[in-house]
Amino acid sequence: MKIWPGRWIAEEQWPSPNVSTKKFGLSHNGILQEVKDSTVGERNEKTVLIPSSFACGSAGGCMIPGNEPADLAQNQACDDGLSRCWHGDVVDTIDILGSPSVQLEISSDKPVATLCARLVDVFPDGKATLISIGILNLTHRNGHSADEISALKAGEHYNIQLDLDVAGYTVHAGHQLRLALSQSYWPNSIWPPPSTPVLQLHFVSPPVFTLPLRKRGVDINNNDELFNDLGQPVVNPHALSVKEIRTPSLQRYTTHDTQTQSHKTTREMDKGEFQRLDNNTIFGASLIEVYDVVEGEPLSAKVFTETNTRVARKETGTGQTAELFDTFVNTKSVLSADESHFHSECEVKAWCENEMVFENQWKKAIPRFNM
Description:
The protein is mostly beta strands. About 0% of the residues lie in helices and about 50% in strands.
């Protein structure tokens, strides 16, 4: 993985007087244009459709990534091509600090719909890097408690605000900002609704994107210099001494079957196997996740997960009398859904010295409740 240049910053209070917001209007032809407080964005009777391809999201990485490149968000160009996008040129370098947000007027022909907004840094060579993302199940537009959640009414217009994740990021002069809207972000975050809606963005109420920007240079009063040199990282003096038996590895890949129109993402994570040198205990684990969906068939979405875990002691150390053992646990689960319920099927098996000592299977149906 390449080192991404960055720096530590410090704020004495939050919200910070060093951060202000800049607003951009979204035009129907894909332009992000700065608007002043005394003006509004584009207002007219035009509409644009928000795309819904299940292939959108394949470059999103994992929701909770580790430190491996395969788990991180990749070049966003493919996902952007499956989204409705707006662009704005960055003339002077800017520092984003805080939560971007977008205010939109939306309508849907189905009771359940989801909206994903991504803020992307587009480099001069076309490479697109994810800055921040926000996702909203539109039945949660008024809040997330049970009495606030309500289905959408076909054809009715809703004014919603979608907040993106907090970000601290520098966009350099000569780059572009891209705001990308989509209905889908599979398999990272969005489970497809029971049926794919026609989701429209309206311009009767001007759509506005709000960006929190931190002052730069001599205009800012801060304590950033306190973090210029943090020294070397502290190493745990009590870390276990181990011998590697099997090397950890991670693979994550996506395939698109042009015959069946299925999109499948597979993540294979081998955590390796190691032996403690103090007591010869062996521990190892592996995980496989498979996310599968057929384009245009939201009820085909399915996730398969399998884990394997081994803990053993095959020999004792010099002068030790610890008990020898070899245990292994395998779990499998499948998650799918129909129009009204999620369906979970799980299995767990355990062995000791190659003899199965435990086995259980169970199924559960969970109401979708506007999902």
